[in-house]
Amino acid sequence: MQQLQYLMRCLRDKAFGCAWDKKQNFKSVAPYTLEEAYEVLDAIEREDFEDLQEELGDLLFQIVFYAQMAEEEQRFSFDDVVNGIVEKMLRRHPHVFPDGDITRFGEPTLLTDQQIADQWQQIKAQEKGGREKSLLADVPTSMPALMQAVKIQQKAAKVGFDWPNVAPVFDKIREELDELEEAMKQQSPLHIEEEMGDVLFAVSNLARHFKVSPDVALNKTNIKFRRRFGRIEALVSMQNRKLTECSLEELDRYWEQAKREGL
Questions:
Q1: How does pLDDT run across 34-67, given as a tens digit for each residue?
Q2: What are the CB-based long-range contacts (under 8 Å, 24+) for 190-194?
Q3: Fewer Cβ close by (within 10 Å): the C or N end of the chain?
Q4: What is the pTM for the complete model shown?
Q5: Using CA atoms, how far apart are residues 17 and 11, in angstroms rounded to an integer?
C-alpha cells in the first residue's frame, strides 16, 4: 500500500508527474470508477480469478486516486478512509466484536441472519442521528437505474409498503404493460417513456421478490444474446453472405439453431 500511495503521489506531482493524472479531479475520475466496478463484476461472473485479481487492483487504484486528491486539498487522507471503515465495521458487528473491541474477536454469536440484518439497520440509523428527512435519502440517485429501483423498493418494504407475495406483482406488470400499450396508441413519446419506466420498475420489483438481482439477470441475458448472435454471424459468414442480405425469417432460424446447439 505504501508503494501504491507513493506511486500515486508521483503521478500527481505538479513538476514531474503525468500530465493526464495531474489534470484529473473527483468528477472526471468518477466514470472510470464505475467502469472498473463493472469490470470486477464481469470477472466474477466469468469466474476468471486471474482477471479478477487485476480488476481488483484497478478498483483499488481508484480509491487511492481519490484519497490523494483529497489529501492535496487537505480534506482527508487514505489513512482516514481506512480508519473510518475499520471503526464502522467494528461498530456494526457487535456480535463479532463485543463493545467494538477488535481484540475480543472469537466469541460465538447466537444471532440469526435476520437478527444480524436488523441489528445492522438499527446501528446504521443510530449513526445517522436523525439527519435524514426521507427513508429514501441514502439511496444514491447516481446508482444504475435498476439497482436504484430495487434499493428504493427494499427501503419501502421495511416499513410495510410492499406486496406480501408475487401474485399482485404479476398483476401490476400486466397493468403497466396495458398502460404502455395505450400510450403507444396515443403516440406520445413522453408518455411512452413514463410508462416504460413504470414497466421496468414493476419488473425489477418482481425480481426483488424472487431475490434475483435484475442487473445480474439482465447481464447474463446480454451475454447469452452476444453468444447466440455471434453464432448467427458465423453461420451467415459460412455462406459468404452478409447479415443485411438475410431476411428476418432466416436470421430467426439461425437463432433457433444456436439455441438447439446449447448456446
A1: 899 989 988 998 899 999 999 999 999 999 999 9
A2: none
A3: N
A4: 0.66
A5: 4
